[in-house]
Amino acid sequence: xxxxxxxxxxxxxxxxxxxxxxxxxxxxxxxxxxxxxxxxxxxxxxxxxxxxxxxxxxxxxxxxxxxxxxxxxxxxxxxxxxxxxxxxxxxxxxxxxxxxxxxxxxxxxxxxxxxxxxxxxxxxxxxxxxxxxxxxxxxxxxxxxxxxxxxxxxxxxxxxxxxxxxxxxxxxxxxxxxxxxxxxxxxxxxxxxxxxxxxxxxxxxxxxxxxxxxxxxxxxxxxxxxxxxxxxxxxxxxxxxxxxxxxxxxxxxxxxxxxxxxxxxxxxxxxxxxxxxxxxxxxxxx
Length: 286
Prior knowledge:
Number of helices: 9
Largest sheet: 4 strands, mixed
Radius of gyration: 21 Å
Structural class: alpha+beta
Mean pLDDT: 85
Order of helices and strands: HEHEEEHHHHHHH
Helix content: 55-70%
Strand content: 5-15%
Oligomer: single chain
Strand order of the largest sheet: 1-2-4-3
Low-confidence stretches: none
Shape: elongated
């Protein structure tokens, strides 16, 4: 169901781009905006692992240095049918974890020292299973595609705003300065970026639900993952992480969740709903 939801949201985002692009940017504007967005997000996609791991000071560890963590990652990766990801540890007391890499052959799993101290082995396996689910579900790729279309829509809105400031928009020439056309373009410039952001965040939340479900199947213990999420949520409240908003969507728990963010603009579903769904899986109700 969450996979279908992602497909529908991606389709909606594409339709929004085509509709808004035609309205306020024209065919040439659409192409320019998409090329710029592709260039920016391709760089992010290709080098995301190196960028984010460096950003949080994550250090790669060997099996000898972290045998329990390494064995858990290997065990879950084998169940998922993907190559063994690289394993990293971040020196941070806040319990959290993330996965990165452009595909299963170039993937990494990173955890904080805080999560290693807080969780037992079964709970840690649930967290690792969630992160490996992101890798096997190719969520980095899906997130990059969504970000590309959202960025292109925002570029179109910016281009239209600048065009209006410096000599009017293309609608002035095509429609003879029709007031309705101008109003429609202004509304599109305001609404389009907001709608694109909302759809992008909805895609992110659907992928989190899917990673919870897939991860629970990999580890075979939905309640262990639910317990881990509860502990991680409490740990993030007690010791918030100094995280970058641009990377918040990568973590198993939004490190910025302590801030007053509207649910629609959140990269993660409410923790209560995630736990409820995992409990339903455990009892066979989902």
